[in-house]
UniProtKB/TrEMBL annotation, chain A:
Keywords: Membrane, Transmembrane, Transmembrane helix. Residues 52-78 are annotated as: Disordered. The keyword Nucleus does not apply. The keyword Membrane applies. Residues 57-70 have a biased composition (Low complexity). The chain crosses the membrane at residues 127-147, 179-199, 220-241, 247-266, 273-290, 302-319. This is Zf-HC2 domain-containing protein. It comes from the Bacteria.
Length: 331, 269
C-alpha cells in the first residue's frame, strides 16, 4: 500500500477537530485513513493523549501542507481533544442501549452461513430435497435387491476392473438370475438431478439465473457435477453391497446425463428429462421387470454403444453451449 | 491507498445509446411475434415502458436482458450486438434485471440471496460484502438483512428484487413491473431511488401504472402490439390527450389518445 503516511501535524489537527484544516486536506486524510491501519492507530493514539503538547509537531515537514498544519497545530487549543473525546463518549452512551437491544446475529450451528454460501455455488437450495429423494430411491432399490425377491442375482464381488467384471457378468447373465433394481435405476437417477438443477418448475430463480453472466454451460455442468458427486458414490456403495460392478452402470449413467443435457439444449432440460426417463422405462425397465432378465443394453458388451452415446452427447452439448444462457433450456 | 477509479471508468464510451434497437423482432413462444419491428434508442435516464397488457413489454425486457434472442433486426446494448450467439458475459455484468415473476429461495436470508446474485453476476469476490450491504441499504432493508426471505412481506420481497438488480452497479437497469406490491410510501422512495440511479445509468421500467411514469420517468416509451407508438417526455404525451379521451389525468388521456390513434384501446379490457 502507501509508503507515505500522514504527518503527525495533520493527524493531531484532525483529532482535535480543527476547523482551520483545508477541506481537501481533510478529504485526503480520511481517504488515507480508510486504507492505512498504521495511521488509524496513530489517530487513535492522538485522541487518547489529551495533553496540548502533542499539538506541537516538529517532524511534520516533507508532506505538502505540512507547514500550514504545523502553524495551526502550534496555536494553543487546550479544549480540542477532550471535547472530541467527550462528544464520542456521549454519543457512545446514547447508542449503547440501542446496540444492546439489537439482537446479535444468530449462529446457525448445524448450517452455518459460510457453508450455505459455498454450497449455493454448486447447488440451488431447491435441489437439496431432490438429491435427498434420489439417495432414498437408491437406498430403496438397494434394500429390494438385498432382501426382496430379486435377491440372488449376484455378479460376484464388484470391485474388479472392467475385464474382470466382464467374465463375471457373462457368468451372471448366463445363469438367468433375477435382475438388480439398482442396476436398472442407476442410469436414470442423475437425469432427475440434472432436471432439478436447470428447470423452470423446480428452480424459482431460473429467470434471474439465466440472465446472469455466470449462466450458461459451465453453471449447468457445475450443478450436474454436484448431482453426480452425490449420486455416484451412493451407487458405488450400493453396487459394492449387492455385487453390481460400476463397469455395468457407470457408462450408461454418464451417457444418460450427457444426453439429457444435449437434448435439453434443444427442447429444454425438464422436457428432455421426462423424454429420456419415458424411453428408459419403456425400452429397458418394463421388459426387464417383465422377463426378469438383465437387458442386453446393460451387459458389458453394451459398453461401446454407451460410450458412443456419451461422446455424441458431449459433442452436442459443446456445440450448443450458448443455448444454456437463454430462457429456452429451462423448459 | 487503492485507486477507486480504473482505466475502464475513465475510458470514453464507444456508443451513442445504451440501448439501440432497429427493426427488432422477438418471439414469445413458438409463433407469436411479441415485439414486431421495433426501432428504439434509449440513453441515460428513467424510461417508462408503458403499454396495455399483452403489448410485449415483458418480451422486450427479456430481450434487453439477453435471455431471449432477437428473431430479426439488431439490438445493440452498450455498443455490443446481442444478435450473435455467445454468452455475452462482459455485457451481462453491466446489466441489472428484475423479472416480472421474481423467484427466490425461501431459505436464504436477504443478505445470502443478494450475495448469491452478486456471485452469479461475477462481482469481484472482495467487493461482494460491500456491494451487497450498499444495495440492501438503498432499498431500505438493512434492518431485515439477516432475516429469511420467507419471513418477508410481498413489498419487501420486491425490494430484495430491486436490491439484487442494482448490486452490480449496472449501466442498464431493467425493471419489469417493479412497483407491484409496494405501498404508496415505498413507491415514493422507489421513484427517488430510480432518479438517483438514472444519473449515470439507463433505467427501463416496465409498468402499466401511468402515475408511476408521470412521477419518475424522464421519458415515456409507449408500446402496443409489439410496436413503438410514442416516445418522448411525459409532458408531450399528456399534451396529446383532449377532454374527449378517457382518463383521470392528462397523462392518462394522452395515453388513451395515443392508443386510439394506433388502432388500440377499443377493447374494454
Amino acid at each position: 500500500m502507501s509508503v507515505e503516511h500522514a504527518s503527525a501535524g495533520i493527524i493531531n489537527g484532525y483529532a482535535r477537530g480543527d476547523m482551520d484544516m483545508a477541506a481537501d486536506e481533510v478529504w485526503a486524510l480520511e481517504a488515507h485513513l480508510e486504507a492505512c491501519r498504521h495511521c488509524r492507530d496513530r489517530l487513535s493514539a492522538a485522541t487518547m493523549t489529551h495533553t496540548p503538547s502533542v499539538a506541537h509537531t516538529p517532524g511534520a515537514a516533507g508532506t505538502p501542507g505540512a507547514a500550514e498544519t504545523t502553524s495551526v497545530a502550534g496555536t494553543p487549543n487546550l479544549t480540542g481533544t477532550p471535547s472530541v473525546a467527550a462528544l464520542v463518549d456521549r454519543v457512545w452512551a446514547d447508542l449503547a442501549p440501542q446496540l444492546a437491544a439489537t439482537a446479535p446475529p444468530r449462529h446457525r450451528l448445524l448450517w452455518p452461513a459460510s457453508l450455505s454460501r459455498r454450497l449455493s455455488r454448486w447447488l440451488t437450495p431447491t435441489m437439496l430435497p431432490w438429491l435427498g429423494t434420489l439417495v432414498s430411491v437408491t437406498l430403496l432399490a438397494l434394500l429390494l435387491d438385498l432382501f426382496g425377491p430379486g435377491y440372488g442375482y449376484s455378479l460376484g464381488a464388484g470391485t474388479g476392473t472392467g475385464a474382470e467384471a466382464g467374465t463375471e457378468i457373462g457368468a451372471g447373465s448366463g445363469s438367468g438370475a433375477q435382475v438388480s433394481f439398482l442396476l436398472l435405476l442407476a442410469p436414470i437417477l442423475p437425469v432427475f438431478g440434472v432436471a432439478a438443477s436447470w428447470s423452470r418448475g423446480l428452480d424459482p430463480a431460473y429467470e434471474l439465473t439465466a440472465s446472469a453472466p455466470r449462466a450458461g454451460l459451465h453453471l449447468v455442468l457445475r450443478r450436474t457435477a454436484s448431482v453426480l458427486a452425490v449420486v455416484v458414490p451412493v451407487l458405488l456403495v450400493g453396487g459394492w453391497a449387492t455385487g453390481v460392478t460400476a463397469g455395468l452402470w457407470l457408462l450408461p449413467c454418464l451417457a444418460f446425463t450427457s444426453t439429457a443435457l444435449a437434448l435439453g439444449s434443444v427442447i429444454g432440460v425438464s422436457r428432455a428429462a421426462v423424454a429420456l426417463v419415458s424411453v428408459w422405462a419403456a425400452v429397458i425397465l418394463a421388459p426387464a421387470v417383465a422377463t426378469s432378465r438383465v437387458p442386453s443394453a446393460l451387459r458389458l458388451d453394451g459398453a461401446p454403444v454407451w460410450g458412443l452415446i456419451l461422446a455424441l452427447g458431449i459433442g452436442v452439448v459443446w456445440a450448443r453451449r450458448s443455448a444454456y444462457s437463454v430462457l429456452g433450456t429451462h423448459r | 491507498m487503492t485507486s477507486t477509479v480504473n482505466a475502464a471508468d475513465l475510458a470514453p464510451t464507444t456508443y451513442a445509446w445504451e440501448i439501440r434497437a432497429t427493426g427488432l423482432k422477438v418471439r414469445a413462444g413458438r409463433k407469436r411475434m411479441a415485439v414486431d419491428g421495433l426501432d428504439l434508442s434509449l440513453g441515460t435516464g428513467v424510461h417508462g415502458l408503458l403499454g396495455p397488457n399483452g403489448a410485449g413489454k415483458t418480451t422486450l425486457i427479456r430481450a434487453l436482458a439477453t435471455v431471449l434472442r432477437p428473431a430479426e433486426g439488431t439490438l445493440e446494448l452498450l455498443g455490443e450486438s446481442t444478435g450473435t450467439m455467445g454468452e455475452h458475459r462482459a455485457l451481462r455484468r453491466r446489466i441489472g434485471y428484475l423479472p416480472q415473476e421474481f423467484g427466490y429461495y425461501k431459505r436464504f436470508t436477504v443478505r445470502e440471496f443478494v450475495e448469491y446474485m452478486a456471485w452469479l453476476k461475477e462481482v469481484p469476490k472482495a467487493d461482494i460484502p460491500g456491494a451487497v450491504q450498499r444495495a440492501v441499504e438503498r432499498v431500505g432493508l438493512a434492518d431485515r438483512a439477516d432475516d429469511r426471505m420467507k419471513s418477508l412481506s410481498g413489498g419487501m420481497v420486491r425490494r430484495v428484487g430491486i436490491a439484487q438488480a442494482i448490486v452490480n452497479d449496472p449501466s442498464i437497469l431493467l425493471l419489469d413491473e417493479p412497483t407491484v406490491g409496494l405501498d404508496p410510501a415505498q413507491r415514493l422512495r422507489f421513484r427517488e431511488l430510480l432518479q438517483e440511479l438514472a444519473t449515470d445509468a439507463c433505467v427501463v421500467v416496465s409498468t402499466h401504472l401511468v402515475e408511476d411514469v408521470a412521477a419518475a420517468c424522464t421519458d415515456v416509451v409507449l408500446f402496443a402490439e409489439g410496436r413503438l407508438v410514442f416516445q418522448g417526455p411525459p409532458d408531450e404525451l399528456a399534451s396529446v390527450g383532449g377532454p374527449e379521451h378517457p382518463g383521470d389525468s392528462p397523462l392518462e388521456r394522452g395515453y388513451s389518445a395515443m392508443l386510439l390513434g394506433s388502432g388500440q384501446g377499443k377493447a374494454s379490457w
